[in-house]
Amino acid sequence: MSSTSSTATRAGFFDVADWRPEDPAFWSAHRGFAIRTLIISLLALHLAFAVWFTWSALVVRLPGLGFQLTVDQRFWLPAMALLMGAIARFPHTFLVLKIGGMWTTFIFTVALLLPIFGIAHVVQDPSTPFPVLLFWAAVAGFCAGGQISSSSANINLWFPKRLGGTALGINVGFGNLGASMAQFVVPLAVSAGIFGAVAGDPMIFKVIDPKTKQVLRELQMWPQNAAYVWLIPTVVISLLVLFGMKNHPARGSFAEQMKIVKLKHTWIQTILYTLTFGTFSGFTASTPLLIREVFGRLPVALLISNA
User: Which end of the chain is more exposed for a tag (fewer CB within 10 A), N or C?
Assistant: First the structure.
């Protein structure tokens, strides 16, 4: 891999010409910029996780809105988002040293607008075919799910090695909280017309007894708000990235970076990561639907739904 030392032959408004975090005097004078980069990075990653896990919080409401989906199809929607997020990590990992961390973060933060508008559009029509819903789940995964790789690679460049683990932990830890944020915010957002007529008309959500198939209750719901709720944060954070972050001078070609695939430890770490983060993300995405399918048929659940 190319050297991450800190001299660059050129620098512009969006680039840093020199970065030497291991130099005590340099670090003391410039650590404020590194901390600012970390704060903006963790906000962008937090938002990406929230958009990425929107399907897991939204999918449990689709049957009540009239979507004719099997249980398997409902599980596939958040699963597809996770799958495409995993695939997206390959280009994300290498883009930081190819085009710069700021540009990578900016491009994929702006790209969140694609799944935001796409999801908001298709969930307003219960006749939307499953392949279309699956496509937008894949788009959400590709645009949002890979940012953890580029974000980590970028932050690692800005801090001295003695602080690298701490910086990465803060960045990834706060970013992962975006999954929880989606689980809390999406149910609130879809239950109120927070954007008024601009976001579209409400739909009727029917609480149905799974045994008798009778409608127990009807509610107004705005499923499009599950996506639109991230619209303003996406615009704000995109601007923060563009004007608050800069590209690190370290650069490397794809060919140079691909040398890591020949290392045994690369594959060991990949397996460990799959078993740890993969388990976390899989359980997080499937838990809402799992709770609904396993416990939603209990009499107590029906009483709560009909309260």
Answer: C
